[in-house]
Design goal:
Length: about 425
């Protein structure tokens, strides 16, 4: 805890800002050079959805191939949202209604609401306050879980091989929620390809985006067929498409729903994907620079990156103020940084155990699962997630698409705010 606080010279209190108001930040999203042309192609293609009569190739199938190749996965099944990707991934496992599924306490609500939507019971586990992710011990502590949703949080990867070593021995499936980690790599292997299934979101704020969108990847041929049906009302692609007929045939081995990606979104993703690694290179270079600048600022840290993680994928960069001044919280630090930088800095969402977005009791149809959910979490504490949620300030990855001066400004603003502490 800090003591006396001199905040008078902070921009949030009317002092001079670190960054001149006329120096703009990079904008997000960045449309790829081919984006307009591909969207026009869809517009005149007579195919705006995969459930349209065959007439030329679908962008959706092209994106599935290209994203699978990019990640090094055998199969990719695109979906309309990352949340639906998680739902179909969980459904594809064929678990029993109400089976427990481990979910980290620090993540977007969809990591857990998808579990409920799949008829399963989310069991929340604390995260490591150094990495923000689940570790293998959390899985060891919950011997009855049948699956684990491992989230690669914000800027770091969870140790999926270590988690799988515990889970595999128990017949517990590992699903990677890589919604925040497109292109992150662990000893050369992409996030999403280390577990049994990997799920991605292509919502507006993500590093690969089509506004809304998602995908599931797997190397498992049997799961891939089920995933296709689960996201397209029990239908799979035909091997022999015929002009004027639907590409989808009613194989119906498992009941699905319509979670299909639109052709406009798929076209945009085909255009955006080639930019991803160039953008990673810029962001990661800037992140390393920021880490150097911040090394001299006491009581402020970035998340710990495991040495096995050989490629970062920054989604939101947490700056952890381990010792906030007395009477100040991270919402104050976020407002102070925003005022210094002229760019939105924000605190993480509350951990799921106290998130207003995870309230299954508001849906009567979930009643039996809700009772078990409430009983299972009564009296539990989540100190790792609570610490990060109450001591971090997040910066969106687009802030890292500029140059070294931007990082110098961020570091100066962080030092000023921490110094006021
Ligand atoms: C970790 C995580 N999982 C799942 C999702 C859900 O993705 P979508 O918003 O595309 O449904 C998100 C989106 O923010 C996310 O960050």
């Amino acid at each position: 805890m800090g003591t006396a606080v001199d905040t008078g010279r902070l921009a949030v209190n009317g002092g001079p800002a670190v960054r001149p108001a006329d120096r703009p930040w990079p904008v997000w999203p960045v449309p790829a050079p081919e984006a307009g042309r591909y969207l026009q192609e869809v517009l005149h293609s007579r195919r705006w959805a995969i459930s349209s009569p065959h007439h030329g190739d679908l962008f959706e199938r092209r994106f599935a191939r290209e994203f699978a190749d990019y990640l090094g996965a055998r199969h990719c099944v695109p979906t309309d949202h990352g949340s639906s990707a998680l739902v179909v991934a969980l459904e594809s496992l064929g678990l029993e209604h109400g089976d427990p599924v481990l979910v980290p306490a620090l993540t977007w609500a969809a990591s857990a609401t998808a579990v409920l939507r799949a008829g399963l019971l989310p069991v929340l586990a604390d995260v490591d306050p150094e990495t923000g992710c689940l570790d293998a011990a959390a899985v060891r502590d919950e011997p009855d879980v049948r699956a684990v949703v491992v989230v690669h949080w914000a800027a770091t990867m969870a140790d999926v091989p270590a988690i799988s070593a515990v889970a595999d021995g128990r017949g517990c499936a590992v699903i990677e929620d890589a919604a925040q980690a497109h292109g992150a790599r662990w000893l050369g292997r992409a996030a999403g390809t280390l577990g049994r299934l990997g799920c991605f979101s292509m919502q507006h704020s993500k590093v690969l985006t089509s506004g809304e969108g998602g995908a599931v990847v797997t190397d498992d041929d049997a799961l891939a067929g089920r995933l296709e049906e689960l996201r397209a009302d029990s239908r799979r692609y035909r091997d022999d498409p015929r002009e004027g007929e639907l590409d989808l045939r009613e194989t119906a081995t498992v009941m699905g729903a319509n979670f299909c990606l639109s052709e406009f979104a798929a076209a945009l993703l085909c255009a955006q994907l080639p930019l991803l690694d160039e953008q990673h290179a810029v962001r990661n270079r800037n992140y390393d620079r920021l880490a150097e600048f911040l090394a001299d600022v006491p009581s402020v840290r970035l998340l710990r990156r495991r040495p096995e993680q050989d490629q970062l994928s920054l989604y939101e960069v947490p700056i952890v103020f381990d010792r906030l001044p007395a009477g100040m919280d991270n919402a104050w630090a976020a407002a102070a940084l925003t005022a210094e930088l002229g760019m939105r800095a924000y605190p993480p969402r509350p951990p799921l155990p106290r998130s207003p977005l995870l309230r299954p009791w508001t849906k009567p149809a979930l009643a039996p699962l809700t009772e078990r959910f409430v009983a299972r979490h009564r009296g539990r504490t989540f100190p790792g997630a609570d610490h990060l949620a109450s001591h971090s300030v997040l910066l969106h990855h687009s802030a890292f698409l500029g140059d070294e001066q931007d990082m110098a400004d961020v570091a100066a603003a962080v030092a000023k705010v921490a110094g006021a502490a």
